[in-house]
Design a protein that fits this description.
This protein has 219 residues and is an all-alpha fold. Helices cover 69% and strands 2% of the residues. The chain is built from 7 helices and 2 strands, in the order H-H-H-E-H-H-H-E-H. It has helices at 2-26, 29-67, 70-85, 98-111, 119-128, 138-148, 183-218, and strands at residues 95-96, 171-172. The protein is rod-shaped, with a radius of gyration of 35 Å. The two termini are 17 Å apart.
Amino acid sequence: MNGWKNHFHDKASLLRDRRWLKRLGQIKTWQLLIILLLFVMLTAIFLRLNNLGMIEKRAELIAADETGDINKVTTAAKNLQNFVANHMNTYTGRVALQTLYDQAAAAALEANRPPEIDAGAYQRASEECRPQLTSFGYRAWANCVAARVGTSEITDLDQNNVPPPDPDAYYIEYAPARWSPDLAGISLLISFLLVFVIVLRLVLLLILKLILKFKYRAA
């Protein structure tokens, strides 16, 4: 009697396993792979759009710097920072605020002008030597001015001890969020979930096939 019960129990268990296997087989792996490919493509498109948005904001910051208006630079920098903080794939790189640096350098050079040097000659020398200021070259610029106004080196211009501007203070660099709840982040999350479902489905199919194989042997 117990043998018959065990037999029917094994048959019922076997049928149940077959039903699970059939259900898992209704959604094909290739179908999931096609859906995954679509979301991967969408993710790539949205990430590219994020990057283009960052480039636009960065260009606005550079344009603001070229005006020499600190308020415009501050506003543009905040807009860029907010965009980068809320979007993936938006690393800015180092953005040089050359115009603001040039203004600070000119103010420092003028503040250090020795009183015995004619202001007009000093101004002409600073303009003629201005190409030396490119890429934050304050020291090269000041040495050029010193040579043109008849002093030996930059230290002769530093009588008022006004320090030159720090180049590092005139660079802006923002790093993006690792994940952001925008279209790029959501499509990326769905892509990872699809990968998980595909792997899980393959593992479950393998396990059920092994179970059925051993149960067939036992039957």
